[in-house]
């Protein structure tokens, strides 16, 4: 899809929001809370961003981007190069972090820019008249985006963990206080998500949901295996030092990808035979055990051959 960058707004220190509207007027494709879009920044450079606006608003998409100084270049590109009026290539919405809308109670935990998927969730929950609470941690008041939008609600806890006398969220206490059948959603830095997973929350399966927006993925670059592409009949050797995605792209195979670190799900490919070495944060443990698909941007192979459905 093509979209026009209509507006850029400062939201907090290092965080801008971007309003994208249809090039030819009309409406944007619908989305559900938790969805993201992939944004093509330049050939070979794409990134995924959560949609921030109320899903009931169909005239535009809003995304927010934190300028990661030590990042891989995507956020710097956006903060330094994007200009109002320019035309952007974006994907249709995809949702790896869907919300269970009929939950008795919803607990949202957002860290830093991880607040973004929570905003459309709140909009939808309010519309449905459902019970919810939000716990939001940022480094400081200056670096906390969207606090103004949250100020109308009394079910919001905001903590600042980077200022003198500040505090972190007490994830254990939040989980312990949540009703037994509540659904919990956590999005934030890797350390926070790891802590959330470690607490385990003692929830029924599928009641604790997490979304990574960046990850310290240990990429599989050991190589030493062969890819057989069932549809094209190609055979590609993956060499030491390259990822499966590197090998596929070098061989001229067109595979979609965005985050390149195993979190967005864009590069998922069906596995027909062989044993993947899963390194991503996208597939569930059950999906990984089933070995039916693989994230080619970061994962490798435990078997000498891997047969892919491409
Ligand atoms: S490109 Fe995002 S998971 Fe592979």
UniProtKB/TrEMBL annotation:
The family database entries (CDD domains) matched by this protein are listed as: fer2, PDR_like
Q: Recorded E.C. number(s)?
A: 1.14.13.82
Q: Per UniProt, which keywords does this protein have?
A: 2Fe-2S, Flavoprotein, Iron, Iron-sulfur, Metal-binding, Oxidoreductase
The UniProt record lists the FAD-binding FR-type domain at: 1-100
- Provide the GO MF annotations for this entry: vanillate monooxygenase activity
* Residues annotated as domain 2Fe-2S ferredoxin-type: 225-310
A Pfam short name: Fer2
Protein name as catalogued: Vanillate O-demethylase ferredoxin subunit
Query: Which lineage is the organism of this entry classified under, starting from the top rank?
Result: Bacteria, Pseudomonadati, Pseudomonadota, Alphaproteobacteria, Sphingomonadales
């Amino acid at each position: 899809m093509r979209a026009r960058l209509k507006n850029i707004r400062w939201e907090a220190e290092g965080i801008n929001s971007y309003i994208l509207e249809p090039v030819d007027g009309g409406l944007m494709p619908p989305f559900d809370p938790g969805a993201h879009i992939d944004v093509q920044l330049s050939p070979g450079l794409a990134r995924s961003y959560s949609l921030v606006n109320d899903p009931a608003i169909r005239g535009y998409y809003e995304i927010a981007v934190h300028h990661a100084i030590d990042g891989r270049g995507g956020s710097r590109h956006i903060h330094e190069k994007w200009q109002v009026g320019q035309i952007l290539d974006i994907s249709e919405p995809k949702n790896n972090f869907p919300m269970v809308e009929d939950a008795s109670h919803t607990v949202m935990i957002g860290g830093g820019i991880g607040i973004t998927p929570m905003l459309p969730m709140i909009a939808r929950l309010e519309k449905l008249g459902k019970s919810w609470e939000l716990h939001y941690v940022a480094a400081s008041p200056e670096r906390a985006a969207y606090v103004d939008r949250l100020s109308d609600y009394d079910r919001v806890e905001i903590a600042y963990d980077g200022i003198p006398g500040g505090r972190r969220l007490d994830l254990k206490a939040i989980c312990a206080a949540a009703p037994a059948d509540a659904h919990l959603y956590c999005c934030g830095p890797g350390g926070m998500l790891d802590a959330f997973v470690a607490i385990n929350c003692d929830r029924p399966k599928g009641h604790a949901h997490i979304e990574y927006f960046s990850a310290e993925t240990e990429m599989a670059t050991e190589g030493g295996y062969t890819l057989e592409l069932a549809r094209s009949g190609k055979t590609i050797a993956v060499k030491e030092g390259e990822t499966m995605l590197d090998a596929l792209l070098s061989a001229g195979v067109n595979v979609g990808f965005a985050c390149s670190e195993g979190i967005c799900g864009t590069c998922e490919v069906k596995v027909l035979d062989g044993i993947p070495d899963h390194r991503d944060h996208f597939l569930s443990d059950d999906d990984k055990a089933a070995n039916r698909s693989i994230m080619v941007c970061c994962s490798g192979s435990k078997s000498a051959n891997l047969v892919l459905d491409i």
